[in-house]
Known about the structure:
Layout: H1 3-6, H2 9-46, H3 51-63, H4 67-77, H5 87-112, H6 116-124, H7 129-159, H8 171-179, H9 186-215
Amino acid sequence: MDFIGAYSADNLLFLAEGLKLTLYVAAVSIVLSFAFGTIVGTIRYMQVPVLSPVLAVVVEILRNLPLLLIIFFIQFALPEVGFKFTVTAGVITALTLFEAAMISEIVRAGLKSIPKGQSEAARSSGLTSLQNLRYVVLPQGLRRMVPPLVSQFISLLKDTSLAVIVALAELMHNAQIVMAQNHNYPIPILLLIAVVYFVINYALSLLSRRLEARTA
Length: 216
């Protein structure tokens, strides 16, 4: 093991570039998957005719496919029919589709957890279905969704490492390049990567607990 050589300034800078791309891909995917997941979950909760059953089928398909298969499909299959993505855009698209399906179920479950009596009271007071959703159900449901949503976001961040298979220059990809320089580098580099992932994900877990405590 060569910790000094593995942690040289050049290697650390190269790994930092990979971490930067990892965080960028994760951040964009989180925003997009949360937006789409919330929309899909809300539509399914409201049981919109035709649209809701169709989305249910799409969600079930995506949830039961391996994320790696979705990444491969977008990166290698879609270009065959004219849809070409850069590696970064392809990975973000795959993560967004997969995670949006997961988040939609969290949203739907969170909305369904609100007692029906509150919705009935809201409607009896003159609120429309959309107003009831906006002012009564959604605010309460979102508070209950915080812990599972953060857990899903943590999973998304870890799943970015799968992009190494399509040569996205994220953290694990750059770590592999550094480890290939010297047979004494793997343990120091892998330990460093483990610490980086742990610190980021543990920070998200702490944030989840604080948000949960505030909304309790």
